[in-house]
Specification:
Blueprint (H helix, E strand, L loop, with lengths): L1 E8 L3 H12 L4 E4 L15 E4 L9 H19 L4 E10 L4 H13 L8 H7 L10 E12 H10 L5 E2 L4 E5 L2 E5 L4 E9 L16 E11 L14 E6 L2 E5 L8 E5 L21 H10 L7 E12 L13 E5 L2 E8 L9 H13 L20
Parallel strand pairs: 1-2, 1-9, 2-6, 4-11, 9-16
Antiparallel strand pairs: 3-5, 4-5, 7-8, 8-9, 10-13, 10-14, 11-12, 12-13, 15-16
Helix pairs in contact: 1-5, 1-7, 2-5, 2-7
Length: about 375
């Protein structure tokens, strides 16, 4: 039987980031994942994700965003690859929009607000938009396009020979954590479980606190291509009457990538294979046509991701959709890394370092907001 200091189960963005951080620190680590980079399953495939420094979901994320930014730049220097492409981020909504107000307040505290502040100014600055003149708008200059698949490859480059491409099972024993596949058996002193939508079977009692949803995305051939070019057109989050839609400039020559931020239908952990039809992308198409006519057009490509979100906690104020990054209360040899879908990708470089700290240093404590003991089933 092989032994190792740390095993990582699940090598999406979070697991790959943890693997990379552990390798760099000289840890004896083995990673497990049946998928190759780019395979269309789970939550981390696809070329890109949005990086926002200021996050309407939680003002406390700004410090995490800054740590992640430093991590992405360090990974770029190490790999020689461009992983975070600078881009402005425009957020817009009706007067009084909480999304815009939250991001604006976070940005104001850092003294970095520039650009349009209402719909009329945004339409003049970015001709693809047709927002109501009185809408609230905030523009972040410090955003970017995270090249997700390239980042996963860069994280894994230094881990040659340390990745086992297979489904893994885990059993806690007195002597260590036994991780098994059909052909391998490894005894690990610690295990990081970062299995995305497949995490619940590894952590008893976790399933009732999670919800996996099917999230669809489309690429749209823009009506006015000259208005949505990278460098001139921003990443956008538009909060219309149908819900929030976000998207990217046409930086790959594939059109404008856009999706609805609202959670899709509850899905099984393998409901990734059926590509979305036009009906599933109706809200996105209609929102582009109404508020971003320069970006609207026929759908040319489609994809599906699975989001894994926490439900509302019951032991302290927590409305759900928050990360879990913690040691398992009844067995601190197991580190739980979930769920980071939806708005977690941009933080992966920082979260990977955090997971490595938890595995290697018993004195390290997880952030209070991310702990498992906010759920009654995991109270310490």
């Amino acid at each position: 039987m092989r032994t190792c200091e740390v095993a990582v189960i699940g090598l999406g963005l979070m697991g790959s980031a943890a693997l990379h951080a552990l390798v760099r620190r000289g840890a004896d680590v083995i990673g497990f994942d049946p998928l190759v980079v780019g395979e269309a399953r789970g939550s981390s495939h696809g070329s890109c994700r949005i990086y926002r420094r200021f996050n309407f979901e939680n003002d406390a994320y700004t410090e995490l965003s800054d740590a992640a930014f430093a991590g992405w730049r360090a990974l770029e220097a190490e790999s020689g690859k461009t992983l975070l492409r600078p881009s402005r981020v425009l957020e817009a909504g009706p007067p009084g929009s909480k999304m815009v107000a939250s991001s604006r307040a976070a940005a104001r505290r850092k003294g970095t607000i520039t650009g349009p502040t209402n719909g009329a100014e945004a339409n003049a600055a970015f001709p693809a938009f047709r927002l109501p003149d009185n809408w609230d708008v905030v523009v972040q200059e410090s955003g970017g396009i995270l090249m997700a698949e390239a980042a996963m490859r860069a994280f894994r480059e230094g881990a040659a020979g340390r990745i086992i491409r297979a489904n893994a099972q885990m059993q806690r024993t007195r002597d260590g954590i036994r991780v098994t596949t059909q052909s391998e058996e490894v005894l690990a002193a610690k295990v990081i479980v970062a299995a995305g939508p497949w995490i619940a079977p590894f952590i008893p009692g976790l399933k009732r606190h999670l919800e996996v949803t099917r999230q669809v995305v489309g690429w749209f051939t823009p009506a006015r291509p000259e208005t949505v070019r990278y460098g001139e057109f921003p990443i956008f989050l538009v909060e219309g009457r149908r819900g929030m839609v976000y998207g990217f400039p046409d930086f790959e020559g594939r059109g404008v990538k856009a999706a609805c931020h609202a959670h899709g239908p509850i899905a099984g952990d393998d409901e990734w294979h059926k590509l979305p039809d036009d009906r599933e992308l109706d809200v996105v198409s209609a929102t582009l046509a109404e508020f971003l006519p320069g970006a609207a057009g026929p759908i040319t490509e489609r994809d599906v991701c699975l989001y894994t979100n926490t439900l509302k906690a019951n032991l302290r104020a927590d409305d759900g959709e928050e990360f879990i990054i913690d040691r398992l209360p009844e067995d601190n040899r197991v580190i739980v890394a979930s769920p980071c879908s939806g708005h977690g990708a941009k933080f992966a470089s920082a979260i990977g370092a955090m997971l490595a700290d938890l595995a290697l240093d018993a004195r390290t404590q997880p952030p209070q907001a991310f702990r498992l003991d906010r759920f009654s089933g995991f109270a310490r």
